[in-house]
Each structure stands twice: as structure tokens, then as C-alpha cells.
Amino acid sequence: MIWYTALVLAVAVERLAELVVARRNTRWSLARGGTEAGGGHYPAMVVLHTALLAGCLAEVHLTGRPFLPALGWTMVAVTVAAQLLRWWCVTTLGSRWNTRVIVVPGLPPVTEGPYRWLRHPNYVAVAAEGIALPLVHGAWITAVAFTVLNAALMAVRVRCEDEALARLPVAAARA
User: Fold this and answer.
1) Which residues pair with 36 in a beta bridge?
2) Could you write out the three-class secondary structure of the chain?
């Protein structure tokens, strides 16, 4: 279980790196006239993502869930793929990527990278990680709870983001 704890902690460090990038990008966006939309759901998102990491560790350590190699290694691969997709989104959007919904007037829509095929590829990465990371070590309760709560949160988030982008004369970046 030590390696699983290390994996979850590595994902936590990755999330902290995201926050550093997002903070820098928030300053960039606001300096260019960007406005934030839907800030009300952001605290719930932070709590949910933190609870995912805590739930992974708590469920495995408290219940003694076994590592099932066929499921576990497959879910490690999905977790890694989700991280790669997330950072592909970050790289593609550059200074426009954020953990918040901030749109900058006058910027053209991003249609490169994963945005060529998906409208919200970062949310696909989040959903995949939310299922896969817990299932690496059999934490199915955490996987189900996160998936249900994340689906509700994403319904709000995507609607907020799409409305914010629609209000602009020219669509801006997507998170």
C-alpha cells in the first residue's frame, strides 16, 4: 500500500502544480480584461477534488482493499493517460488555461490540440482520473461517490463556462 499512497501523493503534488499555473494564468487573464464567471461553484470543486485524494487513501487503508493486478495496472495506465491529457490541455491553452472560468475578451477560440476533437477535454481527464485513481487499489466507493458528485458539478461548470463564452463577441479559451 505504500506505493499506492505514493501515487496518490504524486497526484496531489501535480494538483498543487496546477494551482501554481492557474494562479499565474489568472493574473495574466485579469490583466487583459478577463472576467471570472461561476466562482460560486469553485469551492465545491476544490473540496470534491481534495476529497477524492483523501477518499482514495482512507478507503484503502481503513478497509484493507486488496490490489487486484488486472484492474490495478489497467487503472494506473488510465490515471497516467488522464494526467497526460490534462497537461496537453494546459499546454495547448497556455496562459489561457485555468482552474477557474475566466474568459478574456477578443481572444479566438482554441481549436488545436485536444480541443480539435473535444469541447471540454480537461473534464474528460478529470472524470477518467476520478474513476481510475481509486480503482488502482480497489477503492470503488470513492470512485462511485466522486463520479456521481463530479457529474453534478460538471453539469454546473460546463453550463457556466458555455454561458460565459457565449456572452463574448469572440469566444475565449476553455478550461
Assistant:
1) 102
2) CHHHHHHHHHHHHHHHHHHHHHHHHHHHHHHCCCEEECHHHHHHHHHHHHHHHHHHHHHHHHHCCCCCHHHHHHHHHHHHHHHHHHHHHHHHHHHHCCCCEEECCCCCCCCCHHHHCCCCHHHHHHHHHHHHHHHCCCCHHHHHHHHHHHHHHHHHHHHHHHHHHHCCCCCCCCC
Query: Residue 125: which of 11, 9, 10, 3 has the closest Cα?
Result: 11
Q: Write out pLDDT tens, residues 4-61.
A: 999 999 999 999 999 999 999 999 999 999 999 988 999 999 999 999 999 999 999 9
Q: What is the CA radius of gyration of the chain?
A: 17
Is the CB of residue 29 less than 8 Å from the CB of residue 105?
A: no
Task: Return d(Cα 92, Cα 94) in angstroms, integer.
Answer: 6
Amino acid letter, 135: L
Q: Are 85 and 162 in contact (CB under 8 A)?
A: no
